[in-house]
């Protein structure tokens, strides 16, 4: 990671996250958090759920639960993680993604706990992972998968975080924004390669990002198109590029009938 090339927003988030992790680790030591993580029931198979959906001819939808975002502000009010989880499961989503960052997304670990408890779907902890402590914390709260944002991590950090996740039998979604980050992500063991259509500097979304990068993902990996998907046509474009797995949040959360909106995405393939 080269801090000089990162957008100011991401730099602020990462700086806040370092302080947050230190405070959490001071309150609950790493040894205790690791004990809690390993004492949890085995994780649900996040990667397997996506593969099953695609094998059955459906779109592998990772449906996201988040209250707000830096770019979109407050997204859903009232915000009910359990009800959203049940709606997504009923719609045929393969997995959930739950934002746990508080300062910038108004999320919390409690959102993940409640959402996962309301359904049988595997759950991704969507947060800015920078320290192995957060991986054990994620498993302790019930997460089945973690997100690694390659733009925010050095290769050594990414490997360390992935190794921690693998030691807990968790899945890893490595997120990239360009070919350089893709090449770095392919140095990891994870099969899940998230391709984020959102430009980190402008915050605009361009589906051409996934259309350019998905064909470069080797056949033994699974491209996941993220951000900017709003309708069946968008899903078709991603599938045509080779990404039959998608992560969708804001579009679904802004719909009155979340179940119908998610089902339309799942069945678009």
Automatic annotation (TrEMBL):
KW Amino-acid biosynthesis (keyword) present: yes
Enzyme class (EC, first level): lyase
Molecular-function GO terms, alphabetical: indole-3-glycerol-phosphate synthase activity; phosphoribosylanthranilate isomerase activity
Pfam families in UniProt: IGPS
UniProt catalytic activity: 1-(2-carboxyphenylamino)-1-deoxy-D-ribulose 5-phosphate + H(+) = (1S,2R)-1-C-(indol-3-yl)glycerol 3-phosphate + CO2 + H2O
NCBIfam families: PRK00278.1-2, PRK00278.1-6, PRK00278.2-4
Family, per entry: Belongs to the TrpC family.
Protein name: Indole-3-glycerol phosphate synthase
């Amino acid at each position: 990671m080269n801090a000089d090339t990162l957008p100011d927003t991401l730099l602020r988030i990462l700086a806040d996250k370092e302080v947050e992790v230190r405070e959490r680790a001071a309150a609950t030591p790493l040894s205790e958090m690791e004990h809690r993580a390993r004492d949890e029931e085995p994780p649900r198979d996040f990667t397997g759920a996506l593969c099953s959906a695609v094998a059955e001819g459906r779109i592998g939808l990772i449906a996201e639960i988040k209250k707000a975002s830096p770019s979109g502000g407050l997204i859903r009010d009232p915000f009910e993680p359990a009800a959203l989880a049940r709606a997504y499961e009923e719609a045929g989503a393969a997995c959930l993604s739950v934002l746990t960052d508080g300062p910038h997304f108004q999320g919390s670990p409690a959102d993940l706990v409640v959402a996962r408890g309301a359904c049988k779907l595997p759950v991704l902890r969507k947060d800015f992972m920078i320290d192995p402590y957060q991986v054990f914390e994620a498993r302790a709260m019930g997460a089945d998968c973690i997100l690694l944002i390659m733009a925010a991590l050095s290769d050594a950090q990414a490997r360390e975080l992935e190794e921690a996740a693998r030691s807990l039998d968790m899945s890893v979604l490595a997120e990239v924004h360009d070919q350089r980050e893709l090449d770095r992500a392919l140095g990891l063991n994870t099969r899940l390669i998230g391709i984020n259509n959102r430009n980190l500097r402008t915050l605009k979304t361009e589906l051409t990002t996934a259309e350019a990068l998905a064909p470069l993902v080797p056949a033994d990996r699974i491209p996941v198109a993220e951000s900017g998907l709003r309708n069946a046509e968008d899903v078709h474009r991603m599938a045509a590029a080779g990404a039959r797995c998608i992560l969708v949040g804001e579009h679904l959360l802004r719909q009155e009938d979340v179940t119908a909106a998610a089902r339309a995405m799942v069945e678009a393939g």
